Amino acid sequence: MIEAAYAYCEELTRREAGNFYHSFKYLPEEQRRAICAYYAFCRRADDIADGDYVDIFPGSLGPNDPEAITYRRKLEELAAAKPVVERTEYEDKLAQLFFFRKKLSTAYNSMSSTDPIFMALKHTISNFGIPREYMDDMISGMEDDLYTNRYANFEELYSYCYRVASTVGLVCINIYGHDATAAAREFAEAWGIFMQLTNIIRDVQEDTERNRIYLPLEDLERFGLSEEDMMSGRELLKHPGWKPFVTEYCERIKAYRDKAYKLLPLLPKQSRYSPAAMMAFYSSILRRIEKSGGDVFTERVKLSKAEKLTLAAGVYLKHRFLSF
C-alpha cells in the first residue's frame, strides 16, 4: 500500500511540478519519494484554495473535537473580514481546508487515511521528523488568499510568503537530511522568500486579472504606481515608474537569493543538487524579468525544456566535480 501511495505522489509531481520535478528526480530514492509526497500535499492544498478540488471527508469527531472548536473560533474572527471571493465560495473553501487539516492530523496521530497523499505523507513525517507547525502554516497561507488581495507593505507580504513558501524550504531541509540548525532555518526561510517574490513579479498580469495585487502598495506608491496602473496590463510598461520599481524589487529578491545560496554547503552533499537546481531555474527567470524591464505581459516568463536541461547540466557538473 505504501509503495502505491508513493507512486501516486511521484506521478502527480512528475505531471504537475514543472521546474521542481527536474530537480527532485536526482535525489536519492528515499528523499525523492518524500519530496514528492510533500509536493502532492502542497498541490492538493493549492487546488482546494483555487476551487479545483473538492475533498470528501467524514467530518470531525463531534462538537467537542478540539480542532473543530479552535477552527470555528478562527472562522468567527474571519467572518468579520470581507472575503475577496464570493461569500459561499469563501465558506466552502474554508470548510474544505478545515477537512484538509483534519486529514493532516492523521499523519501525526494514531489514525490512518486511505488517501494516498496522506498515507505517503504520514510515512514521510515519521521518517524525517517534519514539524506540524510548518504544515499548518502553509495551509494558513492558502486561507490568506481567501480574504486578502492587497498587501499594504513588504512586512505584510513577507508574512504571506513565509507561510506559502518559506515553510516549504523548512520542510525540505528536514528531508534533505540537515539537523535544522538556526543558520539552516534562516537560509531555508530566505530560499522560500526568494522563490515566492520571483513568482509574484512573474505573475503580475495573471494576478491582476483576478483582482490581486501582491506587490506592496507602499512600495508601488513610491514610484507613482497606483492600483489602477497595476490593472492596466501592457500599458503598465509605459509608466515611468514601472521599470525603476522592477529594478529595486529585483535587487531585493537577489538579496534573498544570495542568502538562500548559503544553505547549500550546510546540506549533505548528495542532497545539494535538488535545491541548487531550483535556485538556478528561478535565478534565470529573475534575470529574464530584470533584463526585459519588467515585461511580464508579452508572454509568460518561463524556461524551455532545453534551457532547463542546460541549467541542470551546469548545476550537476558543479555538484559533481566542484562544490557549492
3D structure, described in words:
The chain is mostly helical. It folds into two domains: about 1-130, no CATH class; about 150-324, Farnesyl Diphosphate Synthase (Orthogonal Bundle), CATH 1.10.600. About 70% of the residues lie in helices and about 0% in strands. It contains 15 helices and no strands. The protein has helices at about 1-15, 20-25, 30-50, 65-80, 85-105, 115-130, 130-145, 155-175, 180-200, 205-210, 215-220, 225-230, 240-260, 275-290, 305-320. Helix 3 (about 30-50) packs parallel to helix 7 (about 130-145). Mean pLDDT is about 90; it is low at about 60-65.
Mean pLDDT over all positions: 89
* Low-confidence runs of at least 5 consecutive residues: 58-63
- Major sheet: size, sense and barrel closure? none
Please write the CATH class name of the largest domain: Mainly Alpha
The radius of gyration over CA amounts to 20 Å
Q: Examine the coordinates and then state which fold CATH places here, giving the name of the CATH topology of the largest domain.
A: Farnesyl Diphosphate Synthase
Number of strands: 0
Q: Number of helix segments? A: 15
Shape designation: globular
Percentage beta strand? under 5%
- Proportion in helices: 55-70%
Please identify, by name, the CATH architecture of the largest domain. Answer: Orthogonal Bundle
